[in-house]
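Dear colleague,

Thank you for sharing your sequence with our group. We've completed the structure prediction you requested, and as agreed, I am returning the results in plain text so they can be pasted directly into your records. Please verify that the sequence below matches your submission; if there's any discrepancy, let me know and we will rerun it promptly.
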Amino acid sequence: MIYNRLAVGQLTRQLEFVEVLSGRCDTLRRIDRFCETTKLVSGILSDGGRVGSCDPALLESMLFSPGRRRLVVDSRLAGGDLVRHREKDRQTEIRVYGGALRHMLVFDARYAVVPLDEASLHAGVLVLRPPLVGPCGQFFEVLWSESRPLGGESGRNACLQGRQLQVADLLVEGATDHQVANRLGLSSRTVRTIVSELHGRFGTTSRMALGFRLGRVAKRA
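Please find the predicted structure tokens below.
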């Protein structure tokens, strides 16, 4: 009896963070609702290895939803006229990843939607809530930093020089802003400015993604 109560309590707690939606229609309705209530939609979209296999309703929801949107797409999907046309909208930023992708959507830091079937919404999706949304957002940031802007190369892999290089080396070692400032004899404000410049250069918004990108640059150097 005690075991059953513990099991039910654990299952109830898990359901607070995870919801299963079955079927394409329910999924699209929920995605549209999320789009209406969030300021930033971060999406990973794929054609699944077959041109035209990306659900058109899902693609339109991502491209035409209100607010700011950042999309990472595969090379097949990037060749579509709809994606090329919508990229001109300043509310939509699109980058292209050279490897294989599967759908994942992140709405602010509140919800993440992960399809059960990588090629279709008909099998349903998992809707994740905090704290499970965090890793999804971090994964998106890493993938975003590794992708190139639609229609061109990123040009962000040039070697760092001067203070940026010194700060980057310490960040890769795991130093905090305060530790970097002490090591280099800089003010904390200067270090924060340089870190902000590095975020802009590599297109990152989190320390995890920035560290990943700096580590990749260091390996190539």
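Summary note from our side: DSSP finds ten helices and eight strands in the chain.

Kind regards,
the structure core
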